[in-house]
TrEMBL record:
Phylogenetic classification of the source organism: Archaea, Methanobacteriati, Methanobacteriota, Stenosarchaea group, Halobacteria
Keyword Protein biosynthesis tagged: no
InterPro entries, per the entry: Bact_metal-bind_prot9, TAT_signal, ZnuA-like
Name of this chain's protein: Zinc transport system substrate-binding protein
Organism: Halorientalis regularis
Keywords of the record: Signal, Transport
Family stated for the protein in its record: Belongs to the bacterial solute-binding protein 9 family.
Transmembrane region(s): none
One protein family per Pfam: ZnuA
One Gene Ontology term of the molecular function aspect: metal ion binding
Record carries keyword Transferase: no
GO process terms (BP): metal ion transport
C-alpha cells in the first residue's frame, strides 16, 4: 500500500470526486477526513457488530482504530445505510465485511472500491470458513437477504468457526499496519483461547445438561450453527434469513405443534425483532414467557454504555436464555441479579 504523500493526495482527490459525484457537499468530506487517512491514523470499519468487536479486540493497545458502521439499536443486515456510510468505508484503510451475498449494501460498497481503484483493503471475515447448508425447513423461495448459494451465512454463532474470522481480521490488520503485527497476533491468540474457547465450553455445558434438544425461537433463521455445533434443533419462527421476514400462519401453526409436542414453557425472541408473534404464542399456547436471543448482529444503547461485545452478549443474553428455554434452570436462577425481571417478555 502506497503511504507516500503523493499517494495520499491522489487518493483523497479520487475520493472527493466520488463524493461530489454522489451529490454530497465537499465540505462534508473535509470534515470526515480529519480522523482518517489524511491525518496519518489507521482506521478499519466493520459492516457487522460481531466483527467490529473482534477487530477492536485484536487492535487493542495499538493506534489502529476499528469502527462499527451499524447504528445502535439496528440489526446488522436489516437496514439500508445512506451515503455517509459508503464515504466512511472509502476513507478507511480497511473494510471488514462478511463476504458476498449477506449485506447487499456492503457488496455495493465493495463494487465501488474495486471499480474505482480505491485502495481501501478488503477483509473478508468468511474466507476459509466452512458453511453449512441452509436449514431443510427453509422456504427456498423466501431465502431473503443473506442466502449464499444455498449456504447459511451465520457462522459466527459457532465460536469455533468464529476463530477463523479472528484469523482473517488479524491478517487484514497486519497488512494495513505491519508495525503492530506482534500485538495483533498476540491479542488474537488470547481472544481465541480466553474468550471463544471459553464460550464454546460454556455453551457445550448448557446443551449437554439439557434433557430437551429442541429450542423454539420467535426469531428469524439465524441460529442453525448453534444447533449444528451443540446437537440441538433450533426452531425459528421466521423461516427465511432476513430479520425483517414476515411470519406466516403456517409458521405459527408449526410453532404451536413444536411447543405442544416438546412441553415447552419458555421461548426465545430476537432482541431486534418484532415481539408480536411471541405474544401471540403466549396467548395461544402453554408458553409462559419469552426471553432474549441475538445473533450478535447489533447492540442496544445500554450495551454500548456498558462496553459489551460478543463475549458479554453471550454471557448476559444468549446463555441465560438457552438455560431457561431448554428447561435447565428457572428464569430467576440464571444471569446477573434481576435478569429474569428485566428480560421476561421484554419490550
Amino acid at each position: 500500500m502506497d503511504k507516500s504523500n503523493h499517494g495520499v493526495s491522489s487518493r483523497l482527490s479520487r475520493r472527493q470526486a466520488l463524493v461530489a459525484g454522489s451529490g454530497v457537499l465537499t465540505a462534508g468530506v473535509a470534515g470526515c477526513l480529519g480522523g482518517g487517512r489524511g491525518s496519518g491514523g489507521t482506521t478499519a470499519v466493520a459492516s457487522f457488530f460481531s466483527f467490529y468487536d473482534f477487530g477492536r479486540q485484536i487492535a487493542a493497545d495499538t493506534p489502529v482504530a476499528v469502527e462499527n458502521l451499524v447504528p445502535t439499536g439496528l440489526h446488522g443486515h436489516g437496514w439500508q445505510p445512506n451515503f455517509d456510510v459508503t464515504r466512511r468505508i472509502i476513507e478507511a484503510d480497511a473494510f471488514i465485511h462478511v463476504g458476498p451475498g449477506f449485506q447487499p449494501w456492503a457488496d455495493r460498497a465493495i463494487e465501488t472500491i474495486e471499480g474505482d481503484g480505491i485502495d481501501t483493503d478488503l477483509i473478508n471475515v468468511r474466507e476459509g470458513v466452512e458453511l453449512v447448508d441452509l436449514a431443510a425447513s427453509l422456504d427456498r423461495e423466501a431465502e431473503g437477504v443473506g442466502a449464499t448459494r444455498g449456504k447459511d451465512p451465520h457462522f459466527w454463532l459457532d465460536p469455533q468457526r468464529a476463530r477463523q474470522s479472528v484469523d482473517n481480521i488479524t491478517e487484514g490488520l497486519v497488512a494495513v499496519a505491519p508495525d503492530h503485527e506482534d500485538t495483533f497476533r498476540e491479542n488474537a491468540q488470547t481472544y481465541k483461547t480466553d474468550v471463544l474457547d471459553r464460550i464454546d465450553s460454556d455453551y457445550q455445558a448448557i446443551f449437554d445438561a439439557a434433557d430437551r434438544k429442541v429450542v423454539q425461537l420467535a426469531a428469524h433463521n439465524a441460529f442453525q450453527y448453534i444447533g449444528v455445533r451443540y446437537g440441538v434443533e433450533m426452531r425459528p419462527l421466521v423461516t427465511n434469513l432476513a430479520a425483517s421476514g414476515d411470519v406466516k400462519p403456517q409458521d405459527i401453526t408449526r410453532a404451536k405443534e413444536v411447543i405442544r409436542e416438546n412441553d415447552i414453557r419458555y421461548i426465545g425472541n430476537g432482541v431486534f425483532e418484532s415481539r408480536r408473534p411471541a405474544r401471540q404464542l403466549l396467548e395461544e399456547t402453554q408458553v409462559e414467557a419469552y426471553f432474549p436471543v441475538t445473533p450478535y448482529a447489533g447492540v442496544r444503547k445500554e450495551w454500548v454504555e456498558n462496553d459489551w461485545g460478543y463475549e458479554e452478549i453471550a454471557d448476559n443474553i444468549n446463555m441465560p436464555t438457552f438455560e431457561v428455554v431448554l428447561g435447565n434452570e428457572a428464569p430467576e436462577n440464571v444471569g446477573p441479579d434481576g435478569w429474569a425481571e428485566e428480560w421476561r417478555n421484554f419490550e
